């Protein structure tokens, strides 16, 4: 490795490293402010190329991120980056991957728990760190994931979710009826359970008035100031949702008002922030409890389970969950009522059969 000052008074570093084929490759990087920075950069680069876990956490995260960019949606990558850069790198960034212990993880967790984060957010942050270490274990021969030994924090607890009952939603929807786009957007969300990105990607071509269906084939994201259309969140996110007659009529009326809209034009040409503001306006005007936009999807699931007794497979298919286990883990607290109802029906069946036997003996 050669490090020397250039004519600008800055530092250049030059060295050889072995690439993935085992061949020596020359690398030259210029204009570091200090000799120390040049040396550290070169050492981290060599560690990355050789998959050496002597590299620091921040350098390893760059490897992880570059790989994940090919496999995850842009919006997922952006969310992951935000959590890692704000909540993880400040603590672990300069620590060597091979030196991070369960005790380090516990110390980091305790620091997070002293902040006023929700249990679900704590769980999400911890999961991001654990995912990076799992990646190191699987592909870079890290002996074990220190997060596993440290234990988890937070909860993925569906009871933290807020729901609107049908009665609450009907009060809310009247409060936003004065703005057609808001009214029809919230109607579609509540009565179909579509994700927000799926709603914002809908086009007239997705609506089949004759067969009374809505085809979910894409998702809308606003990334770096640009409109981006992506695949749905999961493979099973591509689905066809059957619509009740009243919603078919509502959507037919709405599309009829969109003069000149093309078959592939967006039905709801707004962003998440617009609907969040409209939701706040409707909540304030109507007096119903405040919930998140995503909780409208949960409200639909609650309606299906609590009022209609829909079975997990049907709910999973309608919501686009990849696995029935996902549905059960999120909405398991809603199913005890169904279990009680089933037991009551068994009582009725037994009493009916017993009554028939008694009638037969008289």
List the helices and strands and how they pair.
Elements lengths: L1 E4 L5 E8 L5 E9 L2 H15 L7 H12 L5 H19 L9 H12 L5 H22 L5 H5 L15 H10 L4 H13 L3 H5 L6 E2 L4 E4 L2 E5 L2 E5 L8 E4 L2 H13 L14 H15 L7 H14 L4 H8 L4 H8 L4 H26 L1
Antiparallel strand pairs: 1-2, 2-3, 4-5, 5-8, 6-7
Helix pairs in contact: 2-3, 7-11, 8-10, 8-12, 13-14
Describe the structure.
The structure is a single chain. This protein has 362 residues and is mainly alpha-helical. The protein has helices spanning 35-49, 57-68, 74-92, 102-113, 119-140, 146-150, 166-175, 180-192, 196-200, 245-257, 272-286, 294-307, 312-319, 324-331, 336-361; strands spanning 2-5, 11-18, 24-32, 207-208, 213-216, 219-223, 226-230, 239-242. The strands form three sheets. A three-stranded antiparallel beta sheet has the order 1-2-3, covered by helices on one side. A three-stranded antiparallel beta sheet has the order 4-5-8, with no helix packed on it. A hairpin with a 2-residue loop joins strand 6 and strand 7 (226-230). Helix 2 packs antiparallel against helix 3, helix 8 (180-192) packs antiparallel against helix 10 and helix 13 packs across helix 14. The longest helix has 26 residues, at 336-361. The model has no long low-confidence stretch (mean pLDDT 86).
């Amino acid at each position: 490795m050669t490090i020397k000052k250039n004519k600008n008074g800055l530092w250049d570093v030059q060295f050889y490293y072995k690439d993935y084929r085992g061949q020596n490759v020359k690398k030259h990087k210029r204009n570091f402010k200090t000799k120390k920075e040049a040396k550290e950069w070169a050492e981290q680069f060599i560690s990355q190329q050789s998959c050496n876990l002597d590299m620091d956490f921040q350098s390893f995260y760059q490897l992880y991120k570059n790989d994940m960019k090919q496999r995850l949606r842009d919006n997922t990558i952006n969310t992951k980056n935000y959590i890692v850069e704000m909540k993880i790198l400040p603590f672990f960034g300069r620590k060597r991957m091979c030196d991070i212990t369960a005790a380090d993880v516990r110390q980091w967790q305790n620091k997070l728990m002293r902040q006023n984060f929700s249990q679900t957010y704590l769980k999400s942050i911890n999961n991001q760190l654990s995912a990076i270490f799992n990646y190191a274990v699987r592909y870079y021969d890290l002996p074990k994931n220190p997060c596993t030994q440290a234990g988890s924090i937070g909860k993925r607890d569906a009871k933290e979710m807020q729901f609107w009952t049908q009665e609450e939603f009907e009060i809310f929807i009247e409060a936003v009826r004065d703005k057609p786009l808001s009214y029809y957007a919230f109607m579609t969300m509540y009565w179909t359970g579509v994700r927000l990105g799926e709603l914002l990607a809908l086009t007239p071509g997705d609506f089949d008035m004759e067969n009374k269906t809505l085809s979910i084939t894409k998702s809308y994201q606003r990334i770096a100031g640009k409109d981006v259309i992506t695949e749905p969140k999961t493979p099973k996110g591509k689905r066809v949702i059957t619509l009740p007659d009243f919603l078919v009529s509502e959507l037919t009326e709405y599309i009829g008002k969109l003069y000149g809209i093309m078959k592939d034009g967006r039905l709801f040409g707004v962003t998440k922030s617009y609907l969040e503001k409209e939701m706040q306006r409707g909540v304030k005007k109507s007096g119903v409890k405040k919930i998140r936009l995503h909780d409208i999807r949960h409200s639909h699931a609650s309606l299906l389970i609590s009022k209609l007794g829909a079975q997990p497979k049907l709910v999973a298919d309608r919501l686009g969950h990849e696995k029935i286990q996902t549905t059960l883990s999120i909405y398991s607290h809603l199913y005890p009522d169904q279990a009680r109802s089933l037991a009551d029906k068994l009582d009725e069946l037994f009493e009916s059969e017993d009554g028939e036997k008694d009638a037969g003996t008289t």
